[in-house]
Amino acid sequence: MNMHGGADPVIPYAGNAKRGLDSTDAWLDVWRQRDGCTGPGTSAPAGADVVAATWTSCTDGTEVVNYAIADGGHTWPGATVDGGHGVTTHAIDATRLITSFFAAHPLHDR
């Protein structure tokens, strides 16, 4: 699972080659390959400023999920305290989503 703001000033969504930072799309490619995902993913709004992309045709029931937060900064989605690095979305709650994701995908030996 990944959540990333489109206006993150610390780790840009599009990456930064000069700083050796890959784009979010490149990281998602790595996880899709690692998890053996095949076929296209699906995208759907997850809130007013969030789009969730999900790949479910993966090995052993794994999934790759990305929450792209339009204009979001380097902040914790749903936080009640200002993180100081851009806009914080309240359309999703990172803590709730992560907890649900790991409950649905427990770690197991491969």
Detailed description of the structure:
With 110 residues, the chain is an alpha+beta fold. It has one domain. Helices cover 20% and strands 20% of the residues. It has two helices and four strands. It has a four-stranded mixed β-sheet with strand order 1-4-3-2, with helices on one face. Strand 2 and strand 3 form a beta hairpin. The longest helix has 11 residues. The two termini are 19 Å apart. The model has no long low-confidence stretch (mean pLDDT 94).
Could you name the key traits of this structure?
4 strands, 2 helices, 110 residues, globular, 4-stranded mixed β-sheet, alpha+beta
Topology:
Blueprint: E1 2-5, H1 24-34, E2 42-47, E3 50-55, E4 64-69, H2 94-104
Parallel strand pairs: 1-4
Antiparallel strand pairs: 2-3, 3-4
